[in-house]
Specification:
The complex is a heterodimer of chains A (322) and B (432).
Chain A (H helix, E strand, L loop, with lengths): L3 E2 L2 E2 L7 E2 L3 E2 L17 H27 L2 E4 L2 E5 L3 H8 L1 H32 L6 H13 L2 H12 L5 H8 L11 H29 L3 H9 L4 H12 L1 H16 L3 H6 L11 H10 L4 H27 L6
Antiparallel strand pairs in A: 1-4, 2-3, 5-6
Chain B lengths: L1 H34 L1 E7 L8 H16 L3 E7 L5 H10 L6 E5 L3 H6 L7 H4 L4 H4 L10 E2 L2 E2 L2 E2 L3 E8 H7 L7 H11 L5 E4 L9 H13 L16 H15 L12 H10 L2 E7 L3 H7 L6 E4 L14 E2 L1 E5 L6 H11 L2 H11 L20 H11 L11 H18 L3 H16 L1
Parallel strand pairs in B: 1-2, 1-3, 8-9
Antiparallel strand pairs in B: 3-12, 4-5, 6-12, 7-9, 7-10, 7-11
Helix pairs in contact in B: 2-14, 9-10, 16-17
The chains are: A mainly alpha (322), B alpha/beta (432).
């Protein structure tokens, strides 16, 4: 890096005329400069992280892809079979059904968790009494494990002795078999997932709201913006990147979720809540078709990659303006 | 100086004694430890809990360790439906336990996956009289001439019913399917569910299996033929599924059963919200104790299509298997042998109500007492036409396909013939 100086050139007594800058003598050295001798110091610092990433991310993905093109007999990897497992997946109507269920599950959960998380974040961002206490209460569903969440809601929704049905009965609506009906099982599963995961969105949005400078809000107020106008034209545009990042993370989370669904419905009734990730689990640990399960896992990985790319392109599209 | 010398000599003697003791321990301890064997034993029963089966297991281990002071047993507890999958993974990692308790219907898969060690080197020493002492055929746990497991307990699937609720409703114990519909409707009031058969595919669809197979056999049918091809979709299977659908349509059974697993039904019985169900004989004692039901909870043979012939008993049970990676085969065999002797079986029966697998155990005077009356009734039911199917390797998947088919009939009104035929086709495609 070379610093330059501008030196006025003028006749004595005349106004200085600024000319093109000229280079400094070689004696001037820049402040910061990388080592010239090819030191391994940077590699030493980032090496362990790269190694860890290779070990826990790249290797499992690579191994899954490798297994997905081989015949398997329980956990023994056999001869290569090319894309046979992928062809079997494409021809399997159960897999197609599970893909549709997965998309409904993910999109439905996002449509619930993101707006709810945003609404609560906006409310909790206000300077209200006991807001810290409310923040803690609102975040509680996130700290409960998926297994406990599933068991809790199974009890709450039980048609014989669950409080939800007791309330419905009291109100004259009659009892509903939420988990025994194809029409209600998936919506209820989505609702339970939204209940469990909205705190994650809420916390991220709350953090995003805190980064918006107060001056921007004040400027909007001075300009006479209403609360709704401020939200729509100031807050939400500035929160856009946080919203997209939250959607990316939740999409990846929902697509790979197994425990909640396994415990809550087991994929039933009649496969109406069986998502692709649960299918991978069953194919691997119940039916021991490890090759096919790996192929399905690679498909899920591909879907997640596509969603992530789409989200990133949305972030990089039209610039934010308040 | 003399005093100091005297004290000094005591110090020297004391130090010498301590050093000598340490030297002895340093030599003896490794020798002693080398002689003590610790067996890893996988079970779904936790011996530390306070219920009949936990207490029985704790007693078995205590007696075994007392009789074999150099062998210790460490129990690793897993959920029952996770024992088989975990065993397969452990085998792939070369880390199977020394002994594991496995379900008879998981055994074919475990044998095929190479998780179990052959017991021939031990059982070949047994005389024919011992091999013939088992209630079920010796070859039920033999594959390619290799004895792969020893039966630990048997159970039959029976009709559980609340004697008090039936009396209140003025109905007798159902002996036919029609009786079941009548009684189920009469008992379905308020929070009480008259009759419950779980149709969920979760937990290996075990709740449905307990009822479906007896009804299949009652109609003269079976799951698979001798070549392993599905035949459950033929007339007897269709009849069995239609019977179950009728229970729902006529209000004897709630549609909510589509989501019920074995465990949920058991909890419902304990809670007093289920009046009748079909579950295994092995948990009756536990249900009475945990639910404070006492003799209000009774059992009877599964109703058949006619009063004279109840549905055949579905016999199954847990078995003791040696892991293929066991480094203490002799010690592991001693444990398996100990826990399956007639004496141990008698103790198990007294404490838990689980049926012995050894014929000679039933000769014990206890089985002639009033206390053993119910167990002997189950034994009688088992002997009169009880069946233990030869489960296929893909049994879990088959069960789930059948559960899905039954759910289609109950929830979507699909014909039983179409639903079962679809399940049979799918099973064929998975096993070709």
């Amino acid at each position: 890096m070379v610093e330059t100086l501008q030196e006025p050139v003028a006749s004595p007594g005349a106004e200085p005329v600024w000319e093109r800058p000229r280079r400094l003598p070689h004696t001037a050295r820049p402040v910061a400069r990388g080592p010239r001798n090819g030191s391994l110091l940077p590699v030493t610092f980032i090496g362990p992280t790269v190694l860890l990433l290779l070990l826990v991310v790249a290797y499992p993905i690579g191994y899954s892809i490798w297994v997905s093109v081989h015949r398997t007999d329980y956990l023994v990897i056999g001869a290569p079979v090319g894309l046979r497992h992928y062809a079997a997946l494409l021809a399997d109507d159960v897999v197609r059904r599970d893909l549709v269920v997965s998309l409904k599950y993910v999109i439905g959960s996002l449509a619930g968790a993101v707006p709810l998380g945003l609404l609560l974040a906006l409310l909790l961002d206000q300077r209200l009494p006991l807001s810290a206490w409310f923040r803690t209460i609102c975040a509680l569903p996130w700290v409960i494990s998926q297994t406990v969440t599933a068991l809790l809601w199974i009890w709450l929704l039980d048609p014989s002795f669950g409080p939800v049905n007791h309330l419905l009965d009291t109100l004259g609506a009659g009892r509903v078999n939420f988990l025994a009906s194809e029409a209600t099982a998936l919506p209820v599963l989505v609702a339970v997932n939204v209940w469990m995961s909205y705190p994650f969105a809420m916390i991220l949005f709350l953090a995003g709201l805190q980064t918006i400078p107060q001056e921007v809000h004040e400027a909007a107020l001075i300009d006479g913006a209403s609360a709704w106008r401020k939200l729509a034209s100031v807050t939400l545009p500035l929160l856009r990147n946080t919203v997209v990042a939250t959607c990316v993370m939740l999409t990846l989370y929902y697509f790979t979720m197994v425990t909640l669904i396994f415990t809550f419905t087991g994929g039933g009734p009649i496969g109406s809540t069986e998502v692709l990730s649960l299918r991978v689990f069953n194919e691997t640990f119940l039916y021991w078709r490890v090759g096919q399960a790996s192929a399905l896992g690679v498909v899920i990985f591909g879907l997640n990659a596509v969603f992530s790319i789409v989200y990133v392109r949305v972030i990089r599209s039209a610039p934010v303006s308040a | 100086m003399k005093h100091l010398t005297h004290v000094g000599s005591w110090w020297l003697r004391g130090t010498a004694v301590i050093l000598a003791a340490l030297a002895v321990m340093a030599v003896a301890a490794p020798v002693a430890m080398a002689q003590t064997v610790t067996l890893r034993y996988w079970d779904f029963i936790d011996p530390k809990l306070n219920n009949p089966r936990s207490r029985a297991l704790a007693e078995h281990i205590k007696r075994f360790e007392a009789a074999n002071p150099t062998i210790k047993v460490t129990v690793e507890v897993l959920p029952w439906h996770q024992v088989a999958p975990q065993l397969i993974q452990a085998a792939a990692a070369g880390r199977t336990p020394d002994v594991a308790r496995v379900l008879i219907w998981d055994l074919p898969q475990l044998v095929k996956a190479g998780t179990a060690a052959s017991l021939n080197e031990f059982t070949d020493r047994w005389p024919a009289s011992v091999k013939g002492d088992f209630v079920v055929d010796w070859n039920a746990t033999v594959w390619d001439g290799r004895k792969m497991a020893i039966p630990y307990e048997h159970r039959v699937f029976v009709l559980w019913y609340r004697k008090d609720l039936l009396a209140e409703a003025g109905v007798g114990v159902p002996r036919t399917v029609d009786d079941l519909v009548t009684a189920g409707r009469a008992l379905s009031k308020g929070a009480t569910q008259g009759m419950v058969i779980g149709l969920s595919r979760a937990s290996q669809a075990s709740a449905l299996a307990e009822w479906f197979y007896p009804m299949l056999w009652a109609g003269g049918g079976d799951l698979l033929n001798a070549q392993g091809e599905p035949i459950f979709h033929q007339a007897p299977g269709v009849r069995a599924v239609n019977t179950l659908a009728e229970l729902v349509r006529k209000g004897a059974m709630p549609q909510a059963v589509s989501a019920y697993t074995y465990e949920e039904i058991f909890q419902g019985v304990k809670a007093g919200t289920i009046a009748m169900t079909g579950l295994g004989s092995h948990r009756v004692v536990t249900a009475r104790e945990a639910g404070n039901l006492g003799d209000k909870l009774q059992t009877a043979p599964f109703p058949g299509y006619t009063a004279e012939r109840p549905a055949p008993a579905h016999v199954m049970g847990w078995n003791m298997m040696m892991g293929k990676d066991s480094k203490h085969r002799d010690a592991a065999w001693k444990f398996i042998e100990h826990i399956t002797t007639p004496e141990s079986q008698i103790m198990t029966a007294k404490m838990t109500g689980e049926m012995p697998t050894r014929k000679s155990a039933y000769a014990d005077p206890w089985f002639k007492t009033k206390e053993a009356g119910e167990l002997m009734f189950w034994k009688d039911y088992m002997e009169k036409g009880g069946r233990m199917p030869r489960y296929p390797e893909k049994y879990v998947e088959l069960s789930q396909l059948i559960a899905d088919a039954v759910q289609e009939v109950v929830l979507r009104n699909v014909s039983a013939q179409d639903a079962l035929a679809k399940a049979a086709d799918r099973y064929k495609s998975l096993t070709k």
